[in-house]
Amino acid sequence: MRRTRLWPVILVATLAVAVEGLGTLGSWAWEEAAGKLRRDADAGVAVMIDSVLLNLPSAVQRSRRLVAADLASAEQGRAVEALETVGRRQILCMVAHPEGYLNLARARLIQGRIFEGQADLAEALERNPTQPFAIRLLGLVTLFQGRFEEALDLLARAEAVAPGYRAPPVELTPEDQARVRLKGMDRRLEIYPRLRVETLIAIGQSLRAMGQPEEAERRLELAAGDPRADLVRAQWALLDGDAPAAAGMALGLAQQRSLPARIRASAWSILARALEVQGDSQGALAAAQRALRLAPQSAEPYLALARIAQGRGDIDQAVDHFRRAWGMDPSNVSILLQFARAAEKVGLKADARLALERAVDLNSWDTGTVLQLVDFQLRTGALMEATMTLSRALDRAPADPKLLRMAERLRREVRKR
Fold first, then answer.
1. Is domain 225-295 classified as CATH 3.30.530?
2. Which of 140, 100, 150 is CA-nearest to residue 120?
3. Which of 97, 293, 309, 340 gives 317 a disulfide partner, CB atoms 3.0 to 4.6 angstroms apart?
């Protein structure tokens, strides 16, 4: 009797071991195929098409890691076949996931079967309507068909879901890119109501960049009373040359001890800048030091100290402060550009070049950032590097008038040599 009762337990244990073994086998098979794809694209593609082991559920799950760019160096027909094969496996094993239809869409679009690709993208977005890559790809296809406003609407939808996301790249004029960003943020207000203040601030900043300060103020008024919005208003007052108003707003926030230390530190930093503009260097230094005590891991106090140092002509000290600010906020393009300018003034050209190259890596779609790097490369005699930087930018925006003017300047510089 005891032996009979053990059989169900043994059977379940055996099945569990078998399932786990198949899972391990499938994972191993996918990793082997992916490794072969990296070493020899055509051989890896052949494995992805023909290997029976890649039909195992664990292998299909792992196939979600496949990036279409991994197939770029394979023969196009076989790469398309691999995308179709992987996509169909994913549709069968992962019904609720979008990856299978997205891979089928990629295959169709490479083949020029635009309408079928659109249908597959629609299926992918039905399963995950917040996937920015699929939304942007559909926008790119729609733009290719000449449906401009519909394409901009899709790109704005992607911007709402994932601000700043740029894959796949879509060539737009700076004006249309600004429209997309603004429309996307308006949508973001509806999608993420808890991020209302942050989104209103972003909308206001964009409107100012587009030369619409009055509309920016109107939007920011919708967040009036929130200290984050009041900080931005103080910053804008300073940028507009009204240092006394900026100082008054910043001091009012800095003295509110109930506010988080980070916000008070930002307020002291703005106050420091406003006092420096008004000629009160001692007061500015005291405010910046208070900001530093409140938030020693924030970039803002160091930026305030850097500007104070610049005001008294101590560029070496300013560079040190900008360097610290960069360390605190390494992906802040504005800090990188300020550091580059100061570093170049004191002869630290290698540091300036590094900062500008990093800024372009982070902000490659912004013409102004790219032009600053090209200008630096031209002034320092790095004509080959300037040519390569400008060429990459023109690949993304071949009709940009600022880039074309820089290209003409580059041609003149080359003729001089």
1. no
2. 100
3. 309
